Amino acid sequence: MSRSWLANVALPLGLLLVYFLVPYDADRAPVGVLLGVLLSVLALGVVGAVIFREVEGGDRRLGVVHLILALEAVLMTFSFAYYLVASSAPGQFAGLHTRLDALYFSTTTLTTVGYGDIHASGQVARGLVTAQHVFNLVVVGAFAALLRERWASGRRSPERAD
Questions:
Q1: The pLDDT value given to residue 153
Q2: What is the pLDDT of residues 27-58, one digit of tens each?
Q3: CA-CA distance, 5 to 113, in Å (whole number)?
Q4: Residue 50 contacts residue 42 (beta carbons within 8 Å)
Q5: Do strands 93-94 and 119-120 pair parallel, antiparallel, or not at all (unpaired)?
Q6: Sequence-distant contacts of 44-51: CB under 8 A, at least 24 apart
Q7: What does residue 119 show for φ and ψ, rounded to 5 degrees?
Q8: Is 0.85 surpassed by the pTM of this model?
Q9: Sign (positive/negative) of CA torsion 109, 39, 59, 138?
Q10: Which of 58, 86, 90, 113 could form a disulfide with 96 if both were Cys (CB 3.0 to 4.6 A apart)?
């Protein structure tokens, strides 16, 4: 039995709620910051491993909700990192002050829109944004390969049994 529409919406919304509600600042949650960094690095690794396994053509297939969750996990991870850097070193980003700013910047970086209202101005921030650029290229390439494979397999006509 497939997941219901509500369950498919609840997972991404739950991840978004965690992003906005879990305390990140070192004054309120010093252990939470360290745990958040470790979980974020782990999440990026897991997302990358799952995508590469799917690209290699394993038997399991990702559903749309899994792709959305993977993309959201990547956005939340980089958003968290941007917010943490901006909070601990104010000169690293220009215009990044809130978690929503960080999510907005991460999204505009992923989509390569780049309005320029928020930008990396310090070396640490520029290194982090460069890491997201590289990760984005790999992830977008992997997603494109998955979509191409699914499209090609859907267009193949079934073999006839004559």
A1: 75
A2: 655 555 566 667 666 766 666 666 666 656 65
A3: 30
A4: no
A5: antiparallel
A6: 44/73, 44/74, 44/77, 44/135, 47/73, 47/74, 47/139, 48/135, 48/138, 48/139, 51/139, 51/142, 51/143, 51/146
A7: -150, 155
A8: no
A9: positive
A10: 86
